[in-house]
Automatic annotation (TrEMBL):
Residues 5-131 form the VOC domain. This is Glyoxalase. PROSITE patterns: VOC. It comes from Bisbaumannia pacifica.
């Protein structure tokens, strides 16, 4: 078997209205409607796939190895790539002005990625990212 790409990713939610509001209204993704399903096809593909241990995610988000009980434990992460670090910071400001809470605001990780993270209504850890190596 030879995997060519990530063919699809969909969040599974108990609250479609909240999820649609986040991905379509707040993040501006051009979602189409088919019955109760929202989607977009041929969106530029994933540039990364990984299996991220929860302890490493906790270290990246909170600076400790344990995920705090006060934040829902994620089972997946998705990161949306922006044009540059300033765009990440601007997106955080805009979303905070509209009431979005962040796990952490924009910061530069030791590997050079600028990222801010928040939890989606369905429990996905969502990142707004600028990874310089993806722009070379």
């Amino acid at each position: 078997m030879k995997i060519k790409c990530i063919a699809g990713f969909a969040s599974i939610t108990r609250d479609p209205a909240a999820s649609i509001s986040l991905y379509q209204d707040v993040l501006g993704l051009p979602l189409y409607k088919m019955d109760d399903y929202r989607f977009m096809d041929k969106f530029p593909g994933a540039h990364h796939f990984g299996i991220w241990p929860l302890s490493m995610a906790a270290q990246s988000c909170f600076g400790k190895n344990e995920w705090p009980d006060s934040v829902p434990e994620p089972t997946a992460t998705i990161e949306f790539e922006l044009a540059d670090a300033a765009a990440v910071e601007a997106a955080v400001r805009e979303m905070k002005e509209n009431g979005q809470n962040f796990v952490h605001e924009a910061r530069t990780e030791p590997w050079g990625q600028t990222v801010a993270r928040f939890m989606s209504p369905e429990g996905i850890l969502v990142g707004l990212s600028y990874a310089p190596w993806l722009h070379e």
